[in-house]
Structure formats: structure tokens, C-alpha cells
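Chain X:
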Amino acid sequence: MKRDMQGNMKRNTDTKFEMKLPGHILLLINILENAGFHAYVVGGAVRDAFLGEIPEDYDMTTDARPLQCAELFSERFRVIETGLAHGTITVLVGNFKVEITTFRIDGNYKDSRHPEKVEFTGNLALDLARRDFTVNALAYNPKDGLVDLYGGIRDINLKTVRCIGEPAARFDEDALRILRALRFSAKLDFEIDSNTAEALKDKSKLLEKISAERITAEISKLFESPFPERLGKILSDFKDVFSLVIPEIENSENYDEICLKTPLVPPENNLRMIYFLCAVGYAHTENDRLRFSKVFTKRLGGISEILGKYGESDEQGSAFCSLFDAKMFVYRYGYELCFDAAGIIKHTSGSSRLLDCLEEIKLTGACVSLSGLSICGDDILRYCPGVKPEQIGKKLKECLVKVMSGELENSKPKIIDYINKHT
């Protein structure tokens, strides 16, 4: 039996499990333990290590109070008082940032997101009990080994996302856990426990209380799932939940087909999420439950227009994918955005016509920008007396379209002659 933590600590579920901790984490644990405190790596890092993965980051928990932690570490490291009132500090060890939180018990949740107050405790069991899912309530240090008080290892082996305790209560406390459950299911390829899933759906309207920024972050991570089939199933099974965040889903007539096609798109550069949003007809509004950056919104709009134009063609894209059409989109949106759209089209429809056109344009060095024209504004002023200065920009664009369509040769004499004849 492991040492007493002022509670009834159970025997480890898997005594053979040994987590290889990086040097900076071992250093922090040793400093706390040498000062008479207990310290553990906790949460996702332990879960991922048990699954054989390398954790992306490490969070720690300790019975040392926040000010004790800050005083203890400030002698050697920079300490940021991240959330002192809630028991969290961040310690900078070289290039690493480590959040360390004191064992705590959360008070009532007034806004379905944050506890009104927290109470610090010396009881690890009580601290782990406040967490969201069993697979995230694991703790580890080299002396005690794996601490699993709520069946986290059982659920990892069962490939199940399950709330700790009563699911409805967990979602009442923090409604963001609704999306976190879906995200973890997609990330880990785990089923959601039936009681957890039922409560998740029943409490989904609580998402109205969650900030758009938080919702957007969870949705974005969801679409990064390395398990496409699981993602498609989640999007389909929890349609009503996603409809609260993206209302356009409710009126999407081919939603089942979208759920099948979305996982076909690679997640890199948010392309998978962009396709899904375009496919359901997402339109940004002031009251939107999603909050994307201006750069992302611009990408989304451009790709949406390209996909919409492609959708007007036949199944093979022949009506849209002429070289001229492709050149016009390169002129308007640039190569990167057009290749993104072409990739989506290829993955979801099997047609590579647009991609072929783009590669041909790039290979041949075809003119697709004003800077690629053989003349400039000064040339028009000098050789085209009939053109007024305020008309120069319009004339340049007119000539560019003619050049891209093949109606006009991209040479200075030919273009000047065309302008003089059509002015």
C-alpha cells in the first residue's frame, strides 16, 4: 500500500508502469519533496505516457501552498503567479513552462465554467475527484508510482471517456467539458460512456454560457483528430450538440454525407475544419459562437468561394476547371489558398482537375498578376494618350483578364496596341 495522503489511497492499478520523466520535471519534484511536500505529475501527461506516447507538456500538483511553491522556486527559477487565487503558479525551467497547482477542492460553479472559490487541501484523492474524466485523473511520481483512484486505467483499457462521479454534475460545473469529452473521444479513439454521453446531450445548452474563444479552441482541436473514422462518428452522433455551436448544421440537408467526407480531408492547416464549415454553410455573424482570427476568416471565405464555384460544375469539375478559371482564382487569392481548395476538392470528390490546372499554371509561369504584365502604369501614361490617369488601374486589370484568357499576348507592343484601340 502506498503512503497515506490523508485519505484512503488505493493500491496502484498497474505497479509495473514506470513513467520516464524529463530532467526538469524530476528536478521540480525533488525540490518539493526535499522541502517536505508531496508532488506529482498529473492529468494528460500520465494518460499519454501510459498509452505509450510522449507527452506534449507536463502539469504538476502538490500539497505545498501556492506562496510556499513560489517562495521555494523563485530562488532558482522565474515564477509567474498564473492563478495564485486558484492555486496555480508557472515555473520557467530553461525553455520549459510547468504549471504547478496546489491540491484543492472547488466550490460552487456559478457560471458553468469557474468555481466561486477554491479550498486548498492536503488530500490528493479530493484533488483528483474534482477533475473531469477518469482518464485525466491519474497522478505519478517516482516514489509512489502510478496513482489511479477513480478507474482511469480501467477506462483507458476499455477505451472509454467517462466522467468522474455523476456526469450531469460535472457538466453543470464546467460546460466546456461537453466539448472536451468529444475532443478526447476524437483524440484518443475512445467511446464515450453511455451515461456520460446522455448527460452531455442533456446539458449541451449550457454551452451558451461558454465564451466563443474557448469553444473555438476545443472545436479546432477536435478536427485535428488522428482517427478520421472516430471523428466522423462523433460529428454524426452528436449533431444536436454541434448545432448549438454552428446553427447552420440544423438546416444542412446532406449532413450525413458531410460527416463521411470531412474525415477524408487532412487536418493540416485547419483544412479539415474549413471543409466542414464550408460544407454546412457556416456564415460568421456578430453573435457567432465561434471566434476565429481575421486571417482564418479570410482563408475560410476564399476557400468557400472556390468550393462554391466548383460545386456549380458537373461531378468531374469540367465546367469550372478551365485554365482561365484557375488563373482568376490565383489572381484573387494567391497560390497557397488555391492549392488548399484544390486539395479539399481532390480528397472529397476524387477530382484533381483544379489541382492539375494550378500545377500547369505554376510550371509554365503563366501571368496571373498585375506585376506579371509586360506593361505598367507609367507605360500607359506614356504610350496611351487616350487613357486618363484615374483609368489606369481599370485598364491594367482589363488587360490582365485578356492575357489570362489567352485573348491577348503578354507583350508590351500588343497590350499598348489593344489599349489604344479600345479607349
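Chain Y:
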Amino acid sequence: MDAAPAAEEVERPEPLSDEWCAHHFNYLDPAFAGAIHPTLARLRERWPVTRSDERGGFWVLTRYEDVLAAAQDWETFSSELGVAIPDTQMVSKAIPEHIDPPLHREYKRLISAWFTPAVVAPYEAPTRALVTRLIDGFESRGQCDFMADFASPFPGLAFFELVLGAPPDEAHEVAGLAQRASVPTNPDSRECWVALNAWITGFLADRRAAAPRGDVVDAILAAEIEGRPIREDEVMGLVLLLILGGLETTAGALGQFMLRFCREPAIPALLREQPELVNPAVEELLRLEDPFLAIGRTLRHDTEVGGCPMRAGEKVLLSWASANRDADEFPDPDTFRLDRERNRHITFGAGPHRCAGSNLARLNLRVAVAELTSRLTDFRLQAPEDELPFHTAFNRSPLALPLAFSGGRGPN
């Protein structure tokens, strides 16, 4: 009898084949990055609940109803037991993302109070001024790298100046560290987490030595948790989450929005003629172009989803991007439509771990879309879309987006 082949010689299924989708789904596979939504549509239709043997093994949920229910059931689908697949090499635990209720509620209340609509509303004027300044920097050229010249610097500069009270000229460095750290296949991921942790340590030392600003960082430094002074590891974790949530996802959303504007020029034309439609358009774009594709959970106890028994300790991937294109919740799911009766997208998550900064993200996106579509016309991608580089972990963000445009109307 012939000897069994060595493990490394076992033939793997073709990426995106039925076998791959049903049993070997890998969210970091470059082939998946090039066909995300068609692949997720196949999973919803044929394998809405499936188990992959990649990356240590994990379940994949793709239908809106299942993803929403799991996100709301924190007692079963735990964040505290792990949200990464595989587990990352983070130096500090991002708080409250990695904490479950009831303790989660204390942290969430602490930071949510600083991101209500009333608190973020005064940011609109300085945000618009920043957007105007960035567009001024490339408008006359008629072309730009949209990510490098606008989408990437914008949220960092706004967040550092308006929310963190950190030096805006350090935003680029910190955003780069956060981006590289969060891709588990990056060989320097661990080193980037260490460097990001060191930056936060220095930033907090500077903030403690400076006069209070009366902002979210001061609130964190002075907080009490469960009736005791907040610990340093908790301060680090809260600031880490603010950074991770405040920088990259907004940049990724803007990059995805611009790609759709290039594909469907009728959308920016409509917003140019009817700027009152910017708000609902941003919500529909968020549904279609979710920059944060999925999140992991770890089962606290045995359960069952879609007739599939799952065991305590197993990992589960909740696909926001797939849920947002489920035809059972969103008729004609792949089409940009402003006439939907309801748009209950879950781009910002759901349940107790729903993004605390969603109001700020929405404000940033509305201002950016309004200014870009009013000042620039005829967006044209200057490279084949299938050749664009992407950050392909849980974030779906273009790393470069060469863009040409015309018809600038000048600053407002």
C-alpha cells in the first residue's frame, strides 16, 4: 500500500470552488478579496452556516437574521473570549470590544457619552474646514491618489485634533501602525502592536502633564470602574479602541464610496444636484460598501444555528458585509437605491458591541461626500479596479486609488 502523502503535499481545493466555500473558506485569501460579494452571495444561498477548517477552524454566518441574532446574544457569542480568527498578537486588549456585559456597560457608557449626536454636532464646521483644505491641496491637479491625498489623512487629522487632543502631525504614523498591526499575515504585526502601544503610553504621559481639555481622554483618565479608580491597562485599552475605530474604517469607507462613484457616475451627479440626499445616500453606501467586513466571536457554551450544532470554545465569524446584502432583508441587495422602505444595515455592528463612534463616523462621511461631490465632477479611476491593492483582513480598504476628475467648482 502506498504511503499517505505528507500534509504539505495534500492538494487544496481551488479558491472559491464549492469545496472551498463549503469547507475551506478563508477571509484572507487573495482570491476572496477579488470576489467578496459574489462569494458571500453563494454562501448565503447554499451554505448560510458552514464550518471552515482554515485558521484553526471556525464557523461562518452569512444571513442577516443569523448574524444579527448572534451579535445580540453576547451570552453565547462572546467577545471577551476572543474576536479575532486566529487570535492576534495585541499587546493591550481593546476595551470594551474585548469585554462582555455587565462590565462592558461601564466602559461603553464612559465613551458613548462623548459621541452622542449633540456632542459631535459642533465638530461639523471644523470638519468641513479640514475637508476643504484637503481638497484644495489636489483640486487644481485634476488627479490624485484619493487614499493618500484625502481618505487616509482625513479621519486621522480630524480624530486627533477634535477628539483625542493628540498632535495631528502624528496621525499618519499611528494610522500606519494600526493598519499593519491588524493584518495577522503581516510579518511585523507584533512589532506594530508594540510600537502602537508605546505611542499610546507616551501620548497619555503628555496628556497627564498638560492642562485638562475636558474631552473623552480626560474622562477616561479620571474614570471609576466598579467603584474603583480605573487601571492603567484599562486606560490603554480604551484609547487603543478609540484609535482603531476612529481612523481606518472611515478611510476604508471613503475609498469604497469613491470606487462606486467611478463605477456609477449617476450617484455623485444626483448628490451634486440634490445635496439634501447626501444623508440617505451615505446610509445606502455604508450598507453596500461596508469597510469592516466581519468580526469574530467565541462560543461560551454549546448552541445551534441553522440546524448546525456548535460547541463551546469554537470560533464564529459574523459577516456584516454578507448580512447587509441579504435579499430577505434588502430587496435588490446589490443595487444602490434611495427608495428603500427601511435600511437597517449593520455596518456599525449590532447588540451591546455596536460601534460607539458611529455618530462621528456618519458626520465625517456626510461632510466628505457633500464636499467631494459638490466641488469635483467626472470621477475616473486611473487603474484597473481588479489591480488595486487592498487591506484585506477584516477591513476592506483600498491602499491606493489613483483618481482623475474634472469640473472643480472651487472652495465653498
